[in-house]
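Hi V.,

You were right to ask for the full record rather than a summary. Here it is.
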Amino acid sequence: MNQIQIHKTGGRTVILICLMLLVQTSLVRAADGITGDWEIMMEYRGQQSFATLSIAEKADGALTGKWGSSELSNVKFKDGKLTFTRTIRFGDNEFTMNYIGSLEDGKLVGLLSSDRGEFPADGARKKPKLPVLGHWNVKFKVDEREITGKLSISQKADGVLEGKWTSEGDNTVISNVKFQDGKLTYHRKSTFGDNTYESDFEGTVSGHKLTGVFKGQRGELPATGQRIGAAIIGKWELTTTSERGTRQRTLTVYGDLTGRYESFGGEIPIEDLKLEGNQVTFAIERRYRDQTYRSDFKATLDGDTIKGQITSSRGTTELTGKKVLTTSFVVGTWELASESSRGRVTRTYTLKIKDDMTGTYTSRDRETPITDLKVEGDQISFKIIRKFNESQFTMNFKGTLDGDTIKGKITSSRGTTELTGKKID
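Predicted structure:
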């Protein structure tokens, strides 16, 4: 009788554990569909703007979120429906906006509403810009003659890359531009008078440097390039001061010298960006119904700080700011290890992060892509999703970076493992 009772109790325990695992797995799968960065597109009273919506999952399964640099509250995702509350503070005043949206075919379709009305706020997964996009000063030698030119790489709406070469006295056409597995390739056809020369370029991008070689009729010609506008590229935290008070803003400039200016959580594309020496200028335009309001920015760069003024029809505002730590320092190969309670290494792992902020995690010779990679200051996090038969398991890593070392924890339904490591490449 006792044995039967024990077996029954054990059976119930096993069933209960299985049910808990099934519930936990279903919750993880639900969260996996919404976590990450989304680009939200909005239009309100004739003004089109954007915002970055970031959704993350805590260890207990609860969701947190950010709208731009502001924290969200009441973030929930259930049955394909996302809801949250956004609070906007303006001086001593504040008001709230509620979002309700649905995840349809990998895209967000929703509405932001407040006592002032409602408007559409739809989104798609945010894709990092390719690190090769932008303008490059390229140099190479033909015999003893140094050739210099400006190489511009852009991307069309369909994802196809285009290239343009500009140099004095040189009629050059760039074609078949591709960027795959961290390598830039293109075909170059140059005409000097009655002579035509063709070559193929292959190179790599590391931060703001381009290194490669031209292969053609004249053999192999090593080439180097430096990104134009590197000093302003990155994310800047700005503070504006006027008679209306002090406010916080962010400015993000991409490698192709396009950018966004964040104000109250909304991102407005910048226009006419120019960098001459340490002097930077750009403008933004706000539209309200039939009116357009322009603000002109003029500032001086000093390393990772910026200082200047914003001029508009309302007057002049003082501007100061600093560059936020970029993510380029995490790019490379990291060797991680878990230790036993006695300090012995029990297992090693390899984390590889590419320039485009994608990467892989290797354990027991099994390489898996990482997702939702985020670097905020010295904090890094990402996810690893693995499939076994028809089941899917998610592991979450959160850690702290300190130069070329890393320390953190990886959490899954099986528990938590502490990892330490260093950058090896």
